[in-house]
Amino acid sequence: MSHPLALVGGRANLIYHDISNATRSRWAVPVEHWLGVAEQLRIAGVSDRVRMYLDDGYASATAAARLMRQRYPEVEVVAALTVKTIGEAGHLDWHAIRAMHSWGVQIVGHGYQHVRLAAYRDGSALKTPHDGLYRPAPSLADDVQLSANEVLFQLAETCDALADVARSEFALPYGAYNTDVININDRHRFFAVISTADYGWDFGQELRPRLLVTRDLSPRDIPGLLAFPWPK
After folding, report:
1. How far is CA 131 from the centre of its chain?
2. What's the pTM?
3. What is the pLDDT of residues 73-84, one digit of tens each?
């Protein structure tokens, strides 16, 4: 029987971070998990309908993406890069980024800095303060609230820095956004797609839903989770 994702003609997007056996952080999954998910998706008949994102530009993305392209070429691999961390210790440099791009990895923006574009209070997104200085975020603290021009900086400078290698997509750091962030992007036409950390089926909408994968999820669980348009 066909998987529901294939039947509805949708796609699904999975978020990963570090692909590493060296740390027990729940955000770092072993390479066996990374490839195991692709195998389970192939068995379910939907590996060609899934994008696998590598957020934050960790250096481990190179080997992980190469293995995926070699063994499961039908799976789309996307590297989401934060401009300020390119070339830093433990992160991709420009040589690695261009190499990955040359063998089919899609490159997208993940902020000039890795900072929330919207602040939250009691679980709800706050409105973005108007105006402000056009500058980098003054702090990377979790509770920083960017002004409209600071949001504009994150979007514009990311777009410019990655213009030679990236497609028109911005993956939101921490998945944080509000209507003001979306309106600023739309007004200036920086990115055609804004990728979230909200799960759902992808039918080509501007706000692209994605599912966060941690080591707490078994590869065998993933096809079942993707069989529904919202989390079970």
Report:
1. 28
2. 0.96
3. 999 999 999 999
